[in-house]
Amino acid sequence: MSGKPRLTYFNGRGRMEPVRWLLAAAGVEFEEVFLETSEQYEKLIKDGVLMFQQVPLVEIDGMKMVQTRAILSYIAGKYNLYGKELKERALIDMYVEGITDLMQMILMFPFSPPEEKGKNLDSIKDKATTRYFPVFEKVLKQHGQDFLVGNKFSWADIQLIEAILAVEEKIPAVLSGFPQLQAFKIRVSNVPTIKKFLQPGSPRKPPPDQHYVETVLKVFKR
């Protein structure tokens, strides 16, 4: 096995996509194993690899890590994307948790029944534009710096650019009332490692389609 982190998940975004973003932003190459059958998943459980019988699974530095938040904070700390002192880490944590709440709605959207999709999309738009994006617009405006915390590129910036792009895929004009976030999006998209990740052929996954949804349900036998 190479020294690259090894990611085990579905061939789609889901809970692994922020991990891919963070590793890519740190300039770290990784390998991926895609779950396609319930047998693969059950074997991981039987082998005792999944502590809580859940994926994502990331093998890194001799550890088999589960729980998305633990994985992300480890990677952020390892690659100097987690602030320079405790107060900055606390801010990054708060921002990341807020963005994760918004992303949870995006994550579940493909699994919602067709008759609920319109209502759920309206809810995503409402929460993005009235609860979450105004927070980051205000932060950027008040401190007048390029990045969210300590004027240094961090995990919080990576999570936010991922969220902005994910919401824009569904609601293209969602940033129309947020000039600071528009400028932030351009700025962060041009960070060399992020720019590379946004190019075709990168490990970034496309928006989830019906095949992805069916694969997830099949593996989990739902």
TrEMBL record:
Alphabetized GO MF terms: glutathione transferase activity
EC number: 2.5.1.18
GO process annotations (BP): glutathione metabolic process
Pfam families: GST_C_3 (PF14497), GST_N (PF02798)
Entry-linked PROSITE patterns: GST_CTER (PS50405), GST_NTER (PS50404)
Domain called GST C-terminal: residue spans: 85-209
Keywords noted in UniProt: Transferase
Residues in GST N-terminal domain copies: 3-83
Protein's recorded name: glutathione transferase
Record gene name: Gsta3_1
